[in-house]
Amino acid sequence: MIGNNEEPLGPDALDNEEPVGLDALDRVTWALRRAELAVQALKEQRLRPLGMAASHYTLLISVHADPGLTGAELARRLNVTPQAVASLVARLESRGQLERREHPRHRHVQELHLTEAGRDSLRNADAVIVGIEGRIAEKLGLRKAAQLRTLLDEVADVVREA
Predict the structure, then answer these.
(1) Model-level pTM greater than 0.90?
(2) Which of these, 110, 130, 115, lies nearest to 60 by C-alpha position?
(3) Of 136, 144, 154, 134, which is closest to residue 36 (Cα–Cα)?
C-alpha cells in the first residue's frame, strides 16, 4: 500500500508483477483455443435442431469409427472421465442410438455399437458438420484449409511428443 509520503509506482516498476506476458493473447495455444471455442459453439448451434449436442456427435462418430469400444477406452480417447462417458452412453442408449454388447471373451466388459437409429442420427449430424467444414474451406480456400489441417496435425504430434 502506498503511504502519504510515498510516490506512486511507475509502469516499469510493475513489469515484474504482471501475471502473464503482454503477448499472452497472441500465443498459438490461445489462438487454437479461440478457434476451438468458435467451432464448438457453431456445432452446438447447428446440431441443436437435430436434438443433438456436439458431445453426442463426438461419441457416435468415435463408436462408428471403432465399433466395439468400451466406455473406458472411449473416455481415454475423448479425454473425459469414465463417468461422463457412462452418462452420455446411457442417454444415447435410451434414445435407441447406441447399444452395449457383451464382449465375446470377457463377460464383464461391454462393447459399444451404433444401432440403425444411431447411424441415421450420425448421418444427419455429419451433414451438419460437413456444412461447417465447407464454410471454413470456402472462407480459407482449399489450399489454406489443407495447410491448416496439416499444421494442426503437426501441432498434435509435437504436443504428444512433449
Answers:
(1) no
(2) 115
(3) 136
Which residue has cell 475423448?
78
Place of cell 495447410: 147
Alpha-carbon span 78 to 56, nearest angstrom? 12
Tell me the pLDDT tens digit for each residue of 86-137: 999 999 999 999 999 987 777 778 999 999 999 999 999 999 999 999 999 9
Whether the Cβ atoms of residue 75 and residue 85 lie closer than 8 Å to each other: yes
- Contact at 8 Å (CB) between 67 and 83? no
**Does 9 score more than 60 pLDDT?**
no
φ, ψ for residue 135 (rounded to 5)? Answer: -65, -40
